[in-house]
Write a structure and sequence with these properties.
Layout (H helix, E strand, L loop, with lengths): L16 H11 L22 H21 L3 H12 L5 E2 L4 H7 L11 E10 L2 E10 L4 E8 L11 E4 L2 E7 L6 E5 L2 H13 L1
Parallel strand pairs: 1-2
Antiparallel strand pairs: 2-3, 3-4, 4-7, 5-6, 6-7
Length: 199
């Protein structure tokens, strides 16, 4: 059995008033000046805050370009909202067809293609337009023609796209009227545009 006594831990010396006074004198004896210039190294740009900004900029430009390409102009979105609200409306509310046909760029007496579901003057987000919805069997479905009473500078003939499952196309600018076509498929838009150009 080991009966050797355990060694006592070393005791730190006690400070008296003279020790504290001497420590205070040493503390104020030296002046900590500025660090030498050799110690201040410039941070490389690839390790600075600008590195992630520079990396994110091309991605932001690509995303912005995709959004601008996918999302149509505001007037097209307004037209799609208007069309959705009147999707179940049927009837002929345009007794004088001459003004409607002229807005579509068609001569008086022209018969509209397909089975016409709706003809009426409308207000599309503050813009007056003639609204014609017709079913074209050859093209494969319903197509909406909106002939605005004034040219829309934000739209140009030939512009087209797809948004939220709906296709849109600017068909013509006949007589100062911008004609916008909306449909579920691109084929019916092409058929309708071809009919308007033949007229």
């Amino acid at each position: 059995m080991n009966t050797r006594p355990r060694p006592e831990p070393p005791q730190s010396p006690r400070w008296d008033a003279a020790d504290f006074e001497y420590a205070a004198l040493l503390k104020g004896a030296t002046d900590a000046g500025a660090a030498p210039a050799g110690l201040l190294r410039p941070i490389p740009w690839h390790r600075s805050i600008w590195a992630p900004v520079a990396a994110a900029l091309p991605l932001a430009l690509v995303v912005w370009g995709l959004v601008a390409w996918i999302v149509p102009p505001q007037v097209v979105r307004d037209a799609m909202v208007h069309e959705h609200r009147e999707a179940t409306l049927r009837g002929d509310f345009q007794p004088d067809k001459a003004a409607l046909l002229a807005a579509l760029g068609l001569p008086a007496g022209t018969t509209l293609p397909g089975l016409v579901q709706l003809q009426r003057p409308c207000d599309v987000a503050g813009r007056s337009a003639f609204h014609v919805t017709t079913f074209i069997e050859k093209g494969g479905g319903m197509v909406t023609m909106l002939a605005f009473d004034k040219p829309l500078p934000e739209l140009h003939v030939g512009e087209h796209g797809r948004w939220l499952g709906r296709y849109w196309r600017v068909a013509s600018e006949a007589g100062g009227h911008t004609v916008l076509l909306l449909a579920d498929n691109a084929q019916v838009l092409a058929e309708t545009q071809a009919f308007l150009h033949r007229g």
